[in-house]
């Protein structure tokens, strides 16, 4: 059985793990500094496809966290990486923001409104009825349907907003076509992240705050999984699922250690108490 001491590389979610509404979570800065000091390969993952890694690096820096853009992996980058492997030099009609269009451009894709190979739907704050109508018609005409992530809603200061999954569902209802979703919980996003840093599942850990995306995808990708309780999940949420993370911790602060720390699979109240 793998323990934390076997882990040489890390993938970590961003919101709810390192930051909460632009406020750094206790221990996040220290953990990032420890990884850099020890030369530990790591990537910060997010399903958010709106922003480029440069944007997100600047956002994290403003929150007091030093994460270079090369250490950020978004669902937009994973989507572009996947499409490049499927059809190098292909074309796409895109509903999304700069994070997605930039990633696709850098992957060699052409943005077009004339018989695209793919319709790619990502997150945006400006969903257009006209653009959605075009997407539906292209898919009915044979374009392959891709979504960056399945999240149906996203947060805002005023409350929830419809997100990628909600718009994809609208398009699915109109076309009868389900999208292929690249981002979490598809373990493909983790595999592309591992390739990015030259890591292997056998010695890589995944830190997340959601059982239904971070943890299940980490398990399916063969990673050592760590659930932190600073985001979405609590013990009641954990009990809803038939699978368990390898560890349950109060926050990433408990990963900041001078020496390797061995732990058994967290299970129920005993595992929770061990992690708090």
From TrEMBL:
GO terms for cellular component: cytoplasm. Keywords: Carbohydrate metabolism, Hydrolase, Magnesium, Metal-binding. Substrate binds at residue 184. The keyword Cell membrane does not apply. Its cofactor is Mg(2+). It holds the Pfam family Hydrolase_6. Mg(2+) binds at residues 13, 15, 209. Divalent metal ions. Mg(2+) is the most effective. Gene3D superfamilies: HAD superfamily/HAD-like. The active site is at residues 13, 15. GO terms for molecular function: metal ion binding; phosphatase activity. NCBIfam families: HAD-SF-IIA. Belongs to the HAD-like hydrolase superfamily. This is NagD protein.
């Amino acid at each position: 059985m793998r323990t934390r001491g076997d882990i040489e590389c890390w993938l970590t979610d961003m919101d709810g793990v390192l930051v909460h509404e632009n406020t750094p979570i206790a221990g996040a800065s220290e953990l990032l500094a420890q990884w850099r000091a020890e030369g530990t390969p790591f990537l910060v993952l997010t399903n958010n496809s709106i922003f480029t890694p440069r944007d997100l690096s600047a956002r994290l820096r403003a929150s007091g966290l030093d994460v270079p853009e090369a250490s950020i992996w978004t669902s937009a980058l994973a989507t572009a990486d996947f499409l490049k492997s499927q059809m190098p030099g292909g074309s796409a009609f895109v509903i999304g923001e700069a994070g997605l269009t930039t990633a696709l451009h850098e992957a060699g894709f052409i943005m077009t409104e004339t018989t695209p190979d793919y319709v790619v739907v990502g997150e945006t704050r400006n969903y257009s009825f006209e653009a959605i109508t075009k997407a539906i018609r292209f898919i009915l005409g044979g374009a392959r349907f891709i979504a960056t992530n399945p999240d149906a809603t996203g947060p805002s200061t005023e409350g929830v907003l419809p997100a990628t999954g909600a718009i994809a569902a609208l398009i699915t209802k109109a076309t009868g076509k389900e999208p292929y979703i690249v981002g979490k919980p598809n373990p493909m996003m983790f595999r592309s992240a591992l390739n990015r840093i030259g890591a292997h599942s056998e010695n890589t850990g995944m830190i997340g705050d959601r059982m239904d995306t971070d943890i299940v995808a980490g398990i399916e990708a063969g990673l050592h999984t760590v659930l932190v309780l600073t985001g979405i999940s609590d013990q009641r949420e954990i009990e809803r699922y038939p699978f368990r993370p390898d560890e349950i911790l109060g926050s990433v602060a408990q990963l900041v250690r001078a020496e390797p720390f061995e732990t058994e699979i967290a299970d129920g109240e005993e595992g929770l108490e061990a992690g708090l």
